[in-house]
Design brief:
Elements lengths: L1 H36 L1 H26 L18 H20 L7 H12 L9 H43 L2
Helix pairs in contact: 1-2, 3-4, 4-5
Amino acid sequence: MAKLLKVLERIAVVAGVALTFFAVIETLRGYQILYDTHPYLGYGFLAVVAALLLYLLWQIRALFSYRQALAPPELPDEGQVSAKQAKKFRSHMIKVSDRFNANPHLADKRSQLERLRAEVEALPEPSGDGSNVRDAILAIERNHISPLLTDLDKTAEAVVSDNVGLVTVGTAVSP
């Protein structure tokens, strides 16, 4: 199955390169025809093509500039949490805290966000079997992050339920 997918991927890449080549050739041909008619028509055509390419690049840039979902690092189910894992988790939780602070729907939860940040910055260093860090991380998730996510889920549910009627009407009215 993996071989088939690799072959299909290669076919798609080759087809994409071939189609891009043909598109460039046809664009040059269109330019040549318009330039032969009148040079300003050719230059105008090139200006339009350049503007379209810039717009495409701008849209691609915008697509990749959206925030990515934060993926938490691995936390062992049992046993030791190394200093490296603890540092990664602390960094991750600081990023989560920053995102919560930037969220306008949590503006009324500033004291809770400050407590979250304080507990994240006070995460202990691993000692002994490392379970102290694991327990502290799980306590932060349970006591601070889960309630904030529950509030955000309620807000999102309210926004969706408020707008579902508008979408239904818009779909029914559209031709």
